[in-house]
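Exam prep: given the inputs below (a chain plus EPS), describe the expected output before reading on.
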Amino acid sequence: MSSTWGETVRISIFGESHGIAIGVVIDGLPAGEPIDMDAVLAQMKRRAPGQDKSATPRKESDFPKVMSGLLNHTTTGAPLCAVIENTNTRSQDYGNLLDVPRPGHSDYPAYLHYHGFNDIRGGGHFSGRLTAPLVFAGAICRQILERRGIRIGGHVASVAQIQDTLFDPVDIPAELLETLSTTYFPVIDAGKKEAMAALIEDARMSQDSVGGIVECAVTGLPAGIGGPLFGGIEPVLSSILFGIPAVKGVEFGDGFGSCALRGSQNNDPFYFDADGKVKTSTNHAGGILGGITTGMPMVFRVGVKPTASISQNQQSVNLQTGENQILSVHGRHDPCIVPRAVPVVESAAAIALMNFDGILTGGKSEGGWRA
Ligand SMILES: Cc1cc2nc3c(=O)[nH]c(=O)nc-3n(C[C@H](O)[C@H](O)[C@H](O)COP(=O)(O)O)c2cc1C
Ligand SMILES: C=C(O[C@@H]1CC(C(=O)O)=C[C@@H](OP(=O)(O)O)[C@H]1O)C(=O)O
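Solution:
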């Protein structure tokens, strides 16, 4: 089922952007894990719409009402369900889109797939709004991982051609991840944020949009987690990351860049550190070899396309009249999705990692799903 993901820890996301509510059921969480709800809300706020001019002006409190699975701020082990109300919808903006689909959005293929019965309002179940429950689930999972020393943080690596400094993949300080993972529109080089925001504003004023890249790092991962072929870290993470609306690329370590290197440049030499731990002096692999963690920081990048809904005139078709038609999209849209996608990417990584055998026991097998 396409709105359900995972095996050991499974999320099931429901709702539509302009329906009564959206939400998630999380199955398989370990019992007895204390959950700091303020920290969950802080993560939800980093993703919420209406933050500034770089985001959609739709305002939502994005307050998750927990229906089950938590007692005295602690997981019970039963399915944890949270519901988030939609309070600020403007469905009239979508009145014509069932007939005249937006180029670049899901309208046309969804119309075909659901024979015209799909909820077109706000993009329905295809909307980026469905990443609010994803972030809720991720915020729960990341607290469980953090308790085991596993930290996740991302930043806006680029907006169109403006690039932030990238992570040093061999040395990612805990304080850096802490700062990035608690900030809205996080960047490593503070000087780049203004230029990025200016570019987004320029696109918005031109009735246009821009895309970019999120870079994410995970530190404190035990070595030896993952598996070969389809159960590896890369395929499993990629499958949830590609489920995020507007994600068009995922690369681990040097990714496509490594394809231009020689083996002698791309291989990461091993050495024993002062504590007798095996490390690598470079980390082109992004902390993964053979689908299995090496113990070095995991680093990956996620490409996000420019927002489809732009208000300048575009060529479309009228599915009722059978004629070509010019479309100007109305409504409140993100001129750039990338800043709000950062906590979504971090959350997806947290949920995915919870599915690996040994992740909560420092690499020791629990006989779970992933070998
Ligand atoms: C946080 C977030 C916010 C988004 N905001 C918008 C938006 O305002 N307008 C829009 O057209 N697409 C937005 N999208 C992307 C669309 O939902 C997405 O492009 C669409 O569902 C089609 O899916 P695809 O791009 O993965 O093919 C957003 C995505 C995310 C993750
Ligand atoms: C509401 C959110 O983002 C929405 C994602 C979205 C889309 O097409 O993905 C389109 C817009 O929807 P609407 O027209 O209802 O304002 C965004 O505002 C959210 O992220 O919470």
